[in-house]
């Protein structure tokens, strides 16, 4: 599993991209309609970081939210 955070197990989340057509109501149109849906993936923001784990230094993939929250100690 390459695109998963080693700390919080955050991974790929499926989603949908909507294709819309028509002018929206607040600008004087009849309203926008959804004319197509495409599957997409939301990827986590992973960084390769040297981390001190139990006295050993390893290079692991960690999401930026874990890095900024201070859940790891950099080597």
Summed up:
By secondary structure, the chain is mainly beta.
Provide structural commentary:
The protein is built from one helix and four strands. The chain has 75 residues and is mostly beta strands. A hairpin with a 2-residue loop joins strand 3 and strand 4. The two termini are 24 Å apart.
Fill in the keyword field for this structure:
two-stranded antiparallel sheet, 75 residues
State which percent range the strand residues make up: over 45%
SSE string, helices as H and strands as E: EEEEH
**Weakly predicted, low-confidence segments:** none
- How would you characterize the largest beta sheet? 2 strands, antiparallel
- Overall domain count: 1
How many helices does DSSP assign?
Answer: 1
Distance between the termini: 24 Å
CA-atom Rg in angstroms: 20 Å
Helix content: under 10%
What average pLDDT do the residues reach? Answer: 95
| Number of E strands | 4
Spatially, the strands of the biggest sheet line up as 1-2
Overall spatial form: elongated
- The chain-level structural class is mainly beta
